[in-house]
Amino acid sequence: MKKYKEVILQDGVTLYFDDNNCCEKIKIEKDIDTLILSGPDSAKEWSYDFNLLPDNFEKDVVFNSITTLEIKENVVGVNISNLMFPNIRKVISKSKHFQNGDILKRIFKRKKDEDYVMLLNSFCKKKDEVLDLTGVDTIGPYALSGCESENIINSDYISFCEHDAFSNAGALKKPYKNGVIMFGNIIADIDYDCHDIVIPDDKIDIRVCSSDIEWGKPAKITIHSDSVIRMILATSFLLPEKINIEYTNDNVHLCEIEMIARSQGVQYINLQNHPTCKSIDGIIYSDDGKNVLVCPRGREGKVVIAEGTESISEDVFMHSAISEVVFPTTMKKIGKRAFYGCENLINIDFGIGITEIGDMKNTQVFSFCSNLKSICFPRQVKTIGAHAFSSCGIETLELNEGLEVVGKNAFSECMINHVSFPESIRYIGASSFDTVQDITAKKYISDILFAIKWIWPAGDDKVCGLTINNKRVLVSRTACSEENISSVNDILNEYFLNEKSSESVIEDVQTLFVYGRTMNEREDLAVAMYIDDKSNTPAYEYIYRHSSFIIKRYIKEERTTNEILDFMRIGVIRNDVLPQVLEYAQEKKSPELISYTLQQMRESNLTINTEDNLKI
User: Fold this and answer.
1) How many angstroms separate the CA atoms of 572 and 313, rounded?
2) 83 near 124, Cβ under 8 Å?
3) C-alpha torsion angle, residues 593, 595, 601, 607 (rounded to 10)
4) DSSP-based three-state secondary structure for 468
5) Whether the Cβ atoms of residue 37 and residue 70 lie closer than 8 Å to each other
6) Tell me, what's the pLDDT at 506?
7) How far is CA 55 from each of CA 6, 50, 52, rounded to the nearest angstrom?
8) How far is CA 236 from the centre of its chain?
9) What does the alpha-carbon distance between residue 37 and residue 70 come to, in Å, rounded to a whole number?
10) 250 contacts: CB under 8 Å, gap ≥ 6
């Protein structure tokens, strides 16, 4: 049990201090009208706290006779309950930490800024009593508990209400008006069941609300001023699904609307009577309807951009939850990152109007839309900008005739297996198809080599197949380096531009593996080229010479058993490495590789352990 030091500083009053100079209990044995709060030692270097709350007492205690509270110089903290001292109407403070008056106000010192004042206790004022909040910046926890006053004055400079400031306050007993209870010009509470809460900021200047209000609970709120927008955003990360903004004499700037749109929960913003903007289907447009300006991040489902719209501003739909977007016939321009990171986006209807998607700079219009699996570009689209669809989940891509330009990295780090280039295409930017495994085209342009080039290793598939007019070639992405890309390009130009190629050109094509940057890359490309074309004698001869190195490296790199089987079926593996392959196959528990290796060993008359047969 906690021990206290008993101190008697005035007749009939006993104070109980703990070892930390904090008074947690008090006993008043007779009716007195003035309570003096002071420590037992009046020396200036000593400081004392008073923490007189109901929880510290064995039963409910109310000191009705106390009407005056006197605070001495050595007191730095006072935490008392309104309900324990309901009738205090005068505070006399000799401490620099508190103010004189009819309510208890604490002064907090700041190093650089001006001091600020917190209301600690209003005590239990009656309905007709005045509650003067002159000089108060903050309403503290439980400061209004038991206070019935409806005559609130000078609350204009209050900037914050702590949690539980209105707990058990008489203000909360009043009926809601349009879903709101006001305390002076402070929003004390809102009715979460109200269909449309209307904030009366068109009639009074409102800048503060209770920190206990959960703004995300109501279905819809109507506001009129930028100050209320900032107030709500300062106290809550989650907002209602629908926000209605009625423009009045107060300015509601686009930046405040954008802040609301970025908040969690908001799906629709309805704007009324704004001089420069308007809303269509919960999305903010310019007043003439030609530009989409703001869309709430929480917006879900299908979005149809209004007919007449010509452009979408930067970042408008960024990280929103939309699943589908439909463009009008009037659409001309989409701004940077307009649909960046829309992870739920699965379908885009470009319509018949837009001709350019982004530009040649790093626009990232649809980048990181991870669930966007398929795209079909209509014939009128002539330009796909740089990074426009980078790092998307695209697997199927249809480029129609009419497309002329694809910017750099336009489809980099996607999941596209095959793409067919239209005859109209005249420029393909660097690394725009850095993970595509197979490309088909009617004509060869030198940009293709740059298009499949990796800026950094983006995946395991280092080889890309090119099919131009029924002629097929495998090239290495990593071989397309600055020092040899010109040579590779000359070979491919000569090969694809002529219907019949000379023997020397065919030999150059069949030895493209020599342009790999490293021995490993040259070996891998030679293997891929021979598996793709069994008539490639130079590739076969190169693989034959390097077969032992290749299979040992495959085992060291822990290649898949299918890759090793494909290599072994070329028929160049040496007998001395077959036991090593068998051991790897058994380690990976691959019946097919074990069986094939054992078969090769038998055909080569190699000794096989009985246990090896049993491990199939």
Assistant:
1) 60
2) yes
3) 120
4) strand
5) yes
6) 94
7) 19, 14, 8
8) 17
9) 6
10) 201, 202, 224, 225, 226, 227
Q: Report the predicted TM-score, pTM, of the whole model to 2 decimal places.
A: 0.81
Q: 3-state DSSP call for residue 145?
A: coil
Please name the amino acid found at residue 348. Answer: I
Structure tokens at 277: 């903007």
Using the 8-state DSSP alphabet, how is residue 320 labeled?
-
Give the helix, strand, coil percentages of the chain, each rounded to 5. Answer: 20, 25, 55
Structural contact between residues 458 and 438, judged by C-beta atoms closer than 8 angstroms:
no
The whole-number pLDDT of residue 458 equals: 41
The torsion angles phi and psi of 527, rounded to 5 degrees, stand at -60, -50
Identify whether the C-beta of residue 601 lies closer than 8 Å to the C-beta of residue 576: no
* Residues of the chain under the 70 pLDDT cut: 1, 42-45, 111-113, 249-251, 454-461, 479-482, 609-616
b/e per residue 157-173 (b: at least 16 CB within 10 A): ebebbbebbbeebbbee
Q: How far is CA 58 from the centre of its chain?
A: 50
Backbone angles phi, psi at 549, to 5 degrees: -65, -40
The helix or strand, by DSSP H or E, that contains position 248, with its residue range, turns out to be: none
How many H-runs (helices) and E-runs (strands) does the chain carry?
11, 39
- Residue type at 536 in one-letter notation: N
Strands 277-280 and 268-272: unpaired
Yes or no: say if 238 and 264 are a contact pair by the CB < 8 Å rule: yes
- Classified as helix, coil or strand, 280 is strand
For 347-415, what is the HEC assignment?
Answer: EEECCCCCCEECCCCCCCCCCCCCCCCEEEECCCCCEECCCCCCCCCCCEEEECCCCCEECCCCCCCCC
* pLDDT tens digits, 358-395: 999 888 999 999 999 999 999 999 999 999 999 999 99
Tokens for 495? 């090969």
Distance of CA 493 to the CA centre of its chain: 46
- The per-residue pLDDT for 616 is 45
Q: What confidence score (pLDDT) does residue 614 get?
A: 44
Would residue 100 be called left, alpha or beta, if left means φ above 0 and alpha means ψ between -120 and 50 degrees? Answer: beta
Tell me if residue 129 falls in helix, strand or coil.
coil
Other residues' Cβ atoms within 10 Å of the Cβ of residue 606: 14
What are 21's two structure tokens?
Answer: 């100079």
CB 135 within 8 A of CB 155: no
Residues 190 and 167: beta-carbon distance below 8 Å: no
Q: What is the CA radius of gyration of the chain?
A: 39
pLDDT at 99: 95
